[in-house]
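Re-running DNA 3'-5' helicase to confirm reproducibility after the cluster update. Everything else is unchanged from the original entry.
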Amino acid sequence: MADLDLNKQQKLAVCSDERNIVVAASAGTGKTTVLVDRVMKKVLEGKADMDSLLILTFTKAAAQNMKDRLEAALRKRERTEEDADERNRLLQQIDKLQTADISTIDSYINKLVRKYSYRLDIDPEYQILSSDIARNRLRDQVYDQVIEDFEAGEEKDRKLMFQLMTGNNQDENLKKALFGLYDFLGSIEDRDAWMKKAEENSLEERIFSKIERNKEKFRELADHLELYGDDLDYCQSTTTFKNIARNFIVLKNVFKTASTAASLAEIEEEFNKVDRNRLTISSGNLKNFGGNEKYKGVPPYLDLSEAQEALKNKDIINKSGAYRKALKEADIEQFKEDRDVFEKAIPAYKHVLEVAENEFNAKPENECANKTLDFSMHRMFIEEVEKPGGILEYLNGKLENPKEKFNGDFTKINSSDWLEKFVDSKDPVMAADYDAANSLYLILSVNPSDLFSQQQAVKNAFLDLYDRFSRAYEERKEELNLFEYSDLSKKVLELLKDDEVAGEIGRGLKEIIVDECQDTNGLQNGIFERISEAGGNVTRFSVGDVKQSIYRFRQADYTVFNGMRRQADDEITLKSNYRSRRGIIDEINGLFENIMKKEDDEGQGIDYFKEELEYSGMYEEYEKLPEEEKLTPYEEVFLTHASDMTGSETLAAEIISRIESIMNNKSVYDRRKKEIRPAKYSDFAVIVRSWSQSECYFKAFKNAGIPYRVSRSDSFLKKPEIMIATSYLKALEDNRDDISLVALLRSPLYCVNERELAFLRTLQHGSFYGLIYRFRNEHETEEGRSRLENAAEELGLEIGFIETLNEKLDKFAEEFEMLSSLAYTTSPSDLVNFILSETDIVSVFSALPQGSGRRANLNGLAGYVRELEDSGMTSLSEVNEALESDRNLDEVNENVDENVVTFTTIHGSKGLEFPVVFLSETQSSENYNKNPAVIRRDGLFFKSLRTEELEEGIRDYTTDNTLLKVAGLNDEEESEKKRLLYVAMTRAEQSLQVMAYGSNPKNDSSNKSSKPKESKTFLDLICAAKGYEKPEFTAPGFEKSEKAGNSVVPDDPAFDGERTAFAVSDADLISPATAVKKMFSKTGGVTCRTLHYKGEEETEDERVPADALGTAVHLIFEKLDLGSANKAQVEKTAEELCRKGFFSEAVLDVIKDTFIDGIAALYRTKAGRELRQSEDVRREFPITVLVNAEPEEGSDDYTIVHGIIDAMYRNPDGRWVLIDYKTDINLSCEKVLKENYDGQLRLYAKALEAMGEQVESCYLYGVRHHDLFKVEKGD
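Result of re-run:
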């Protein structure tokens, strides 16, 4: 963008001469252009040279992009410059650009430490722990040493901490909390001050301060409730509102005490006087103060005394239906007795009716408490009462002939029903003060005094452990001469305390420019401030957007940027968006104005209204196209499950259908070329919150023949090329590793097929490595070759089989022997490079579709291994262990210009933009709040530990975060969730399609919810912002193809063979057991001693997919503590797994309803009891071995079995017993045989026996009905 193209705000940012300038640059507002233009302006005006500017970014790619753009701008200016001296000056600036400080923050910090290492008294040859793998491994080692000594103590506080922060013999939460605190303290300037604050700031103070802020509400509430007295009979006589009203009245004195109390203990003491039996709140549902909360917040503005008066006298009013008959009979004496009461009730009744009509008519029908209210008869009643000659005049003796004058028809009036509902649901003070009352009840209901004591005890123990860990970890790093980047930042801050050094660093600098400043932390900002001060006149130019701060897990602290904005000499806000169409911008603004509110005193929160996006007019030419040619700017696509598909498969298929439809029918606007053109694959991006369902999408893309790339995939180690390379490393470490050897032999490097592997296995038992060398030794002699050929002939193998196999094994042996000779004489990274250069792995995988990306992945593996070495891992075994333990390496993608669809997470999409974005899986919840510890800028807090005595002397421990929620200590996670959604939505240029799956409730009443639930998902946030109670899910629009599975292969002239090849190029390296189980199934051999399933027809639970249930149940079996495998322990395990995010709350509900009893029942069977008592139990045991599949006569089919044995244990005789779990409906012996489940178990048994093990028996367990089927394993 040339200077003339800059808008007003951009020009202000480019030209500002203030000392401390902060630019709030929303998404797509051209911040990079502003940065480049500002630098160019300073250089061209002679105010700065390139080497006098410190320009810092967060990624190497961003730094390189900045350099490239500056060089391009300088060269363009130099080519058009006529003055020779100025041209020479520009050429000098280009030279200075090459050495200018344009880098990442970490790189600059590292540069300073190495330059001044002599001042810091450290070895300049230090290594940086930049790899997560190496850092975590070193931390794990230190933790293991520290925890062993720490656990030896018997202090009560330590036991309490372990009970809270560990479970199922796993201490991952404790480690994460320790490591998280270490990282957090590495991001702030004054660690000692924070530690003091953490020790002093208590949860009790936070809670009580919240109560104190509501004191006026509690006073108002207590005074108001005096109008009710203590009339619980009144509450019981009413209908819809009775629970809330009753609970308010019962707790009246608690509210009164809360309005004046000087401590929480005073309020708790009053609460303990309450007769809990008078409350309508279930002890099992303490999170809901009132059962009918949906009426909260409806503004009635009724005077309570009037409402009460109308209710008290409703019986008089209800006599109106009898008036007509009584008057006709001239029986008027009874009305004279009611006169005084009636005269008093009618005005109240009239007022209530007036308010009711106004409320009813003002609200949408679906929000009314009663959709069928009819006020006409009530209005007529009032008219008849008050008109001349009406009932009031008659009762006052003014009418002589009532039989003739008074003829109103009241027979249809029944006022009591609507009157009760309306008045009960409309108490204004209860509605206004509901949140304060509910929060107070939540606090008091969990026995806060006990929990506060517990909180302090856990904190003391945790900080004690942290102190030991941090000191040991620092000593270990010093011993190895290792530093983390946070250590280096701390060293630089220490260095800058020396005025001489600080002046030297700042001298010569004109300006410090920091991009993506919202992702800095307090320590980094302190460094920039000190350099700026030391340099004298060094200006600061900071650019960021708090709405895009999504790296809290890397200790980014957006409140630092908020603070900088408040202290800036010149704050400039960029709003004009050059990326997105108006329709997208309007939707984004409408959404985030509702969910991003003004920041608080602590610098948290975002006032979106001040930063809402403005449309730039970029797409005016595009908008002139006919509607049928243009993309839909914004669409919400909420789908029900397609038949025989999971929700994620449904979304993937719908996305594929939409991609093909757009490519065939729509046009896009190329912003860079400023032209309208047909859509292509690279215009599309699928953005998800996490990788959990990514395989569904990859499979669908492959089946449809759609090329795609993965941005920052955490499935790097699962890529075929990487699996082969790591298999080589494992086999070189241990040549008895059959799984790795088989993977290598079957790979495209050596192409040994399953028949050939099966033939090798017939030679002898033992490892494949030994089989290979026996075969080759036999083949070297004529006699041996003859034996091999005879053996092949007996198996019906073709002529030439032996020679072909020998060629393959010779090639393997030659390369493997050469690499083996290097394995322990060279570094692991050099060994990887030898694998890449001395075998065909690079050329083979480069020849496949997306070959350059695969080659990049292989080179990336070499880089990862090199990082591990730099971090102190020098042995092959250490590297293999590290690669095996870390499953979150990033995929390398070199070919960003390929015409492929991009699939990425939100974090991976940061900084990218696409014409069409599918924001998918918005219904998916990510459980951030997994850890019992909450680390904040203002202190350290913990969840509570609840202890319950169960049967059989078992104690149940569960965590509870009620107090943390009430205190607002989970607000940072909620805030980041909103920022993640903002980043995702602002990636779209021309079409944003928000995707979710779910089901519509069967009963409309379930859709009525008064108070919005906690926003666990993006879909929740969207619904809350748009006022949806629940989204409406519709059937998907695609047509399912049997050939494509869950997608349709398009009839596209551009479709070619390469795409077809790509669709199958990532086939599994080893066949799954489920693919061959039919070979081992029989017509009988399955028995069940007591069959609980009686043959009734069952249907799947529609609340969650069957596969999700099966996965969850298997996970519970895997993680269950066998020491106490009872129902309570099963339920506890299920809840803990749900809290950790392994499955959703919807799945948990179905498990509790259907499977808890069945899981526990297994361990009451003989097999289950033996399993619990066995000293050798394997759960989720992976097995990969080659077996003869008992082929039919004339067949030479062999297979490699790869599967998971659910559970296996050695019985007292030393033999294995296998158990397979099934969650199927209608599970009978017949179904076991029909589905070949018996074959799968027999296959596993045969696989184990082929490995030299002995198998006693096999069982299949039907979890739904507690049925244990015995499967005869056969010969």
